[in-house]
Structure formats: C-alpha cells, structure tokens
Design goal:
alpha/beta, globular, D-Maltodextrin-Binding Protein, domain 2, 3 domains, about 260 residues, two-stranded antiparallel sheet
C-alpha cells in the first residue's frame, strides 16, 4: 500500500512539472541516466517561487485583523552573537510583541547570508562588511577582539620560533579569518589547526592548552572569566569586528520584521 501511495505521489509531481514546463515553454530539469539537475530556467523559477511564497506570508501577516503584532521570524546568528546579543533581544522583543514567534539558527556568516538570500531566514547577525546586492544592513555592535590562550601558555612573543596551534570554527567564521590575518601579520603562515563546532568546545580546548584562539573580549569577560585563560588585546583594525544585521531590502517586510529591524 505504501509503495503504491509513493508511486502515485511521484507520478503526480512528474505530471505537475511537465504541465509547468509546457505552460512556460521551457525545461526546468536536465535529465540524464545518472542524475536530474535544475536548468537555468528551473533555478530562476524556483527563486521566483520562493519570493512569491515569502510575499504571500508577509501579506497574511500584514492583513491580519489582530490589533496585536503576530507572525514568526527566523533569525540567523554567528555563535558569539547568539551568546552575547540574542538573549537581550529576545527579552526586549518578546516583552513588546508576545505573539511573534522567534526562532534562531547558528552558523557562519557566509552560510547565514546565503540563507537570507534564499528566503530560509528573515534576517541574520553576521560579521561586517557585507556588500551583497539586495541586502540591507544595520550595525548591531562593535566587538574588541582578544587572543585567548591557556593560563600557562608561554605568551605570544617569538611565535615564529615555535609550533603554533590554533583552535577555531570551520572555514567561513569571521573570528577564524581574523586570527589567520593576525598570524600572517606576525609572519606566521604555518600552523596546526583544530576545528571545533561549538563555542564551549573551543574554550575547553584552549584551556587545555591545545591551541590559541581569537574571540570578543566581552565574551570572555562575561561568560568565561573564571576559567584558566589569558587574553591579549589585538591592536589596530584587526582588533575590531563589527556585527551587523542583514535582511532583504528588495521585498516588502512584514510588520513583525520591521519591528525587529527597528530594534537596531
């Protein structure tokens, strides 16, 4: 019975795709014996479909008869912002708009920006600068950055004379990129890299002496002040990282989204 239902569903989907291709007089899929891929027309159609679905949801929220602001927002965050900024945002926003549901996703800046462009997120907190067509930005805060080491680490002098180990998030993380630039400014181009996917994991590894990292000073002072760590300020432009909130500016925003952006 289950196989028959699945087969029937697949047949219906195939028939609908064929009908759409006939209506638009183009092919949405390139089919081979091994794979099925979207054509350029198929990709364009999918993007327009996402935009239409987004607009329909925005219209539903805007035309709601409720006097109270309602709806839902999907927000992306780099992990440090999730720890430092989001709790206060949630507290303030939900007090004012209790009927708006907020959900958050942590990831690196490039992935979050792509999700906003792809209508998977309504907005995202990411590292600046962001110069992507179709996206608007507002500054959230500027963080001062510090190098973080274990308490018994020998220090940062003469890094070129001994093996350097770093503990970081995966590629795409703003803090990893800034740490690599800082090392390069000191002539360190060869180093051992340990990738960890949580902030707590990075701090634990650094505290254990596995390597050094770079993070906002506020994060260490607020959440990890009692750990066996040392911090060293990063001077100059490399020592400041601005966080911005990004959102699509080429489509109408719901009342809930406008209210959220206005917080900043």
């Amino acid at each position: 019975m289950g196989n028959n239902t699945a087969a029937s569903r697949n047949t219906n989907v195939t028939a609908r795709i064929k009908s759409l291709e006939e209506e638009f007089k183009t092919s949405f899929f390139k089919r081979t014996s091994r794979s099925v891929e979207l054509t350029a027309a198929g990709k364009a159609f999918m993007q327009f479909s996402k935009e239409i679905n987004h607009l329909v949801e925005e219209v539903k929220q805007d035309l709601s008869d409720s006097a109270q602001l309602t709806g839902s927002l999907k927000i992306g965050c780099i992990e440090t912002t999730l720890a430092l900024k989001v709790p206060g945002v949630i507290d303030h926003f939900t007090d004012r708009y209790p009927d708006v549901h907020l959900s958050f996703k942590a990831d690196n800046s490039p992935n979050l920006i792509n999700d906003v462009l792809d209508y998977k997120l309504d907005a995202a907190f990411v590292g600046a600068p962001v110069t992507v067509a179709g996206l608007g930005t507002r500054v959230v805060k500027e963080d001062r950055l510090v190098i973080v080491t274990a308490k018994d680490h020998p220090g940062l002098s003469d890094l070129k004379k001994r093996p350097v180990k770093i503990v970081v998030f995966d590629q795409g993380c703003s803090y990893r990129a800034r740490l690599e630039l800082w090392l390069a400014s000191r002539g360190v181009v060869n180093y051992q890299c340990t990738v960890v996917n949580t902030m707590e994991g990075i701090v634990n590894f650094v505290e254990a002496g596995i390597g050094i990292t770079l993070l906002p000073a506020d994060l260490i002072s607020q959440f990890y002040y009692n750990r066996k760590l040392k911090t060293y300020p990063v001077k100059g432009a490399l020592g400041a990282l601005t966080t911005v909130i990004v959102y699509r500016k080429d489509v109408p925003q719901s009342k809930a989204m406008k209210a959220f952006v206005e917080l900043f």
